[in-house]
Design brief:
eight-stranded antiparallel sheet; 546 residues; mainly beta
Amino acid sequence: MKGRFIALLAVVPIWLNAQTVAPYRSAVWSPDNGDGTYTNPVINADYSDPDVCVGESGEDYYLTASSFQCIPGLPVLHSKDLVNWEIVSYALRELKPTDVFNQPAHGKGVWAPSIRYHNGEYYIYWGDPDYGVYMVKTKDPAGEWEKPVCVIAGQGMIDTTPLWDDDGRCYLVNGWANSRAQFASVLTVRELSADGTRAIGQPVIVFDGNGTENRTCEGPKFYKRDGWYWIMCPAGGVPTGFQLAMRSRSPYGPYESKVVLAQGKTRINGPHQGGWVHTKYGEDWFLHFQDKECYGRVVHLQPVDWSSGWPIMGNNGEPVTRYRKPRSSSNVIVNPVESDEFEAFSLGKQWQWHANYDQTFGMPTAFGTYRVYTHKLSQDFVNFWEVPNLLLQKTPADRFVVTTKLRLTAKAESQQGGLIMMGLDYSALIVKRVGSSFQLLQVSCKSADRGNRQEETLIATLAPTAEDTIDYKPGIHEDICLRMSVNNGKVKFAYSQDGRSFRSCGEVFTMREGKWIGAKFGFVAVEPAGKSDRGWIDADWIRITK
């Protein structure tokens, strides 16, 4: 591999310290133009349903987003200027009930969270449409978060946001999932205990979009400004809708509403839910998402003008593409991390599993690699939709190249692993043991969520690059570099046996989003059901380039 095992204990702490000092710079997308302006999206990755708050310092901004069934969940991103963002932590290490989330529960789990700073602590609330409203909190958003508290048990409640009023009372606004409650397009407000841990009041419908252009009103965010209670929410549908602002002198309404951001003549379709912040410099900004289909829901930043008494966003209500940066004391350019050399003793912050983590999924090594063990498939296996140990990250741009160096160690027949682009449709470049050699395969499936069987196409037969020399549970090994080139939703595959010369292979694959998430790429490692010792892939590195 990297040949860095020697003196590893002396080398690694220095490397880790260097990583905390040097900001990560993406090779494929950075919104900061370096001239005092930025270009949307400020996060060109699937951070669906983003919300943002201002931290204690007044110039630290924290963002969270939906994570659904992916673990770790509730990503927390930090910025000094609302343009340059980095992943600093996750607020959720496990989803419960574990009997549901220990295997992929696509589209379930964490829906549309909100993040708030109150009385020296940071809070994140979210609705799990099947189990209720939850909350986690911490004093350090980049550190560990407390275990979740179930604030309200029940089905259908989603898109939750608390508001602590001037008198210390706490209110919660939420939307409703039609798939669970059999009604939607209404927003409700109820009172919580002052510590925000339980409901002490009954829900009151404060806005009804049924039968109007405000259908599918959801994702409400709750604020108070100049004596007015404000709810900001999208309506009209995810890919085609618009932003509403509504105000009342009472948290329970009635609310008057106004469209404050819509696509207009721009190419920014359906500017959807997000969060408003007022900075210590007296500026107002709004972060929201745009649905980009297979790439997921990417994050845009809009200026906000309150001069009319309403928060008119963007350029007179239409999204901006390029604009001056918010005032800030920072000029650091940093982006969410993508590439990984796998030299740390913990999983990189760009990675998520497709279900609650189990140690047999994989773990870092002392050898400068990350090991993903082959998951034992069920006897009635159909496709990778059911595999929990998919180690994946979000796509970072419309156009990029992923190259990885890995070794597959196979101790039994049909153990396999490789590089995958995963969604409702998926395609992967897989190395699979067949007898005493390996096959390089393109494995693809359309509408995997509907139980369709995957198809395999043989690309090449490969001799092992190494074999174990002792006759005790021996394995054979294949060292290989795999590549996927992504351009406007199309994926082309290639491979190399020497790490220098790449050979194009397989059919061009058309990406497709997952269940409420964008397509994600990363590693897959599986094997047939049985009692054989597991195989594994050791990922040496993965690099994201133009």
